[in-house]
Specification:
226 residues; alpha+beta; Jelly Rolls; Arc Repressor Mutant, subunit A; 2 domains; four-stranded antiparallel beta sheet; 33% helix; 20% strand; globular
């Protein structure tokens, strides 16, 4: 899916080359870093497993990832974890809570070392009031992410692990607008795919090997290509 956006501070997708998730030039930024800093944003580093916010806290900032991967999850009393997603470079998260007084219903935890751009809630709200086109595009991003959650939730009714894995890989490729065979690098690790699909990591590894044998994916140097 491609959004036609004239504002250079909003860059969503690149279709001119194969996505390379180790190349920061391949990422979109929901709001340009320069624009966020200019309007009062600050940079904050987080270590692996450090909480950015926790379930039950009030939203006080807009968060956008400069570098790194964040996990959105819930942890239950029995120790089980439910993962909602893994936003990475350029993505924002928790932004919908800035429009309500509700407390966070999820946790945001750094999966890798992260640098996060933070913008205070009031500054963010003033900022988007002056730039309604920016708010519309942030809302589009939030809608796409909600669609992704609907797809992942549908996995609960699917028994075949290969169908589960293929569906999430195919959705990611379609989302970024790619149809070249084996031209898309999956941005998630096997462990993250297991968390998203509710499968064991050993099952995901076995399924991916079977998909490689069947010619559905290619695996090179540990990276998965669809």
């Amino acid at each position: 899916m491609i959004f036609a956006i004239e504002d250079k501070s909003l860059i969503f997708l690149y279709k001119s080359k194969i996505i390379n998730f180790t190349d920061t030039n391949s990422f979109f930024m929901i709001i340009s870093e320069e624009l966020l800093i200019k309007n009062g944003g600050t940079l904050r580093s987080f270590e692996v497993d450090e909480f950015i916010f926790e379930e039950g806290m009030k939203a006080t900032h807009y968060f956008q990832i400069q570098t790194g991967v964040v996990k959105l999850n819930n942890i239950f009393e029995n120790g089980k974890e439910f993962v909602h997603g893994f936003p990475f470079d350029g993505h924002c998260f928790g932004e919908t809570y800035l429009l309500t007084e509700k407390e966070y219903a999820i946790n945001a935890v750094a999966v890798s070392k992260c640098t996060i751009i933070k913008l205070e809630k009031e500054l963010y709200l003033d900022f988007i009031k002056l730039r309604p086109e920016l708010f519309i595009n942030i809302s589009r991003y939030s809608a796409e992410r909600l669609h992704f959650r609907y797809i992942v939730s549908s996995f609960l009714a699917i028994r075949d692990p290969q169908v589960k894995v293929y569906k999430i890989l195919k959705h990611l490729k379609d989302y970024f607008g790619y149809d070249i065979p084996f031209g898309f690098v999956i941005p998630f690790t096997r462990s993250q795919l297991a968390s998203l699909t509710g499968l064991r990591m050993e099952t995901v590894i076995r399924v991916l090997k079977r998909m490689e044998t069947d010619g559905v994916v290619k695996i090179q140097q540990g990276k998965i290509y669809l």
